[in-house]
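Hello,

Our lab assistant flagged a job as stuck in the queue for most of the afternoon. It eventually completed. Since we weren't sure the result was trustworthy after the delay, we are filing this so someone can double-check. Below is the sequence as submitted and the structure that was eventually returned. Let us know if re-running is recommended.
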Amino acid sequence: MSNEPTITFHGATGTVTGSCMEIGYGGRIILVDCGLFQGTRTLETLNHEPFAFDVADISAVIVTHAHIDHSGLLPKLVAAGYSGPIFCTAATRDLLYHMLPDAGRIQEYEADARNRRSDRADEARIEPTYTEADALAAFDQAEPVDLKQWFEPAPGFRVRLWNAGHILGSTSVELEVGESHLLLSGDLGPDHKAFHPDPQAPAGLDHVVCESTYGDRVREDITIEQRRTLLEAEIKAALTRGGNLVIPVFALERTQELLLDIASLIHEGRLSHPQVFIDSPLASRATEVFARHGRDLEDMGDGEIFAHPAFHYVASVSESMQLNQVTGAIIMAASGMCEAGRIRHHLRHNLGNRQSTVLFVGFQAAGSLGRTILDGAQRVRISGRDVAVRAQIRRIDSYSAHADQDDLLRWIEARRPISGSLFLTHGENGSTEALRRLTQSADAATTIVLPRIGECYALPKGEAARRMKTGRPELEEAVTRDWQNDYADFATRLKRELREIESASARREALARMSVVLRSYKDHRARHRNPAG
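-- returned structure --
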């Protein structure tokens, strides 16, 4: 048993966020990723829970890439007492210098904003998960390592990082632990993605952990030129309507890909010179990191694509507010799933305008505001306000930084033989289940495992993984749609439906009946909990 490492999953199971895997061997523990949960309010509450492991036991952390759902709880880890190394590529370290403090500022701002809301006046004060100062302290512990170079993060662990083709600096993690040979994919990019070569990794492994974000989806296989043609059509149609084109973007990678394509379309004369506002200080800083690493990237040309005269980088909040007066412009703002940041302000200002367009170019997690809009909601709540959705809602799938089902199957096939187990993580339940059926029919590994949060597995050499500890069933509901989504839907419909009732007295009666239902349900639950009473 002493030669068998273990893996425990602390996130990114049944959901695409909160990536965190604990690898144990010989009395030592390392973490691969320590990411933030994003999506529903219930899911976000997991960020405030104590870590499910003893921070003092952690010898090292390896971060696959800088996206916040993989790195965003590092400041909390350091604030809890972790003082060891955080290993990552040099590009990831440069991005974390901007990403982590920005996340800390957002944590502080969001907590303060919620505490000031009038509908929370009688509720307990919300504390930020961590602060900007915590984030800066975490960055100080980041240590860069080169791709394909073996290093020892802790005694008994040999590690090598491979290009994952997802975003700048992203990696898959190869581990030799005891007698077992492991590979953790991190997030994988699609084949032929802008900026990056295709993903690479070794073959002939005992156990593989593979992401499955798009495990149920096959995107149309299009070239970068075909993608630009799609973008050209969306921009022209949106600006012809006369309103703004609002694009929720991820500050890292998606913004830079869009700027690359827009600059190319302008240069080729396919677009007149539109006004493009990049309203995300983080996206602006990430773009500077891209330019600094231009020698390591593909498609960068002369390296000046991000300095095009049509591009306007918005820094201050007052400049952002002034965009309310702009029409016929392209406004790119974070966050990509519309859960925080300046995009919520622009959605609140533009969603109700029939001449405006909202274009989604990235994955929208279940429960996020972006998914709610994309799924066809007629009204949404943004920062406590009821907002009608009258704008054109559009989507382009071809900008995804994630491998689709075919890409994932090719990547898994290239890792064979896998003599032990294949774990499918980082996907919603439908995605992981679809990929499980396909990999199982292809005999990709001895067993295919869909782990749950809190589950622990032994990883013997050449044999199927064995579950050592069950998961945490109380967390299962948190990774799917929760009651707050239902409440938001109900609240946005309530006023309109009350107005459709024929008289004021009938409306009051309807409200009174709803109150009776709520009280009776509360009494029923109380009797159920205390039958003797």
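-- support follow-up --
The delay was a queue issue, not a problem with the job. The result is valid. The two ends are 52 Å apart (CA to CA). The chain is about 35% helix and 20% strand.
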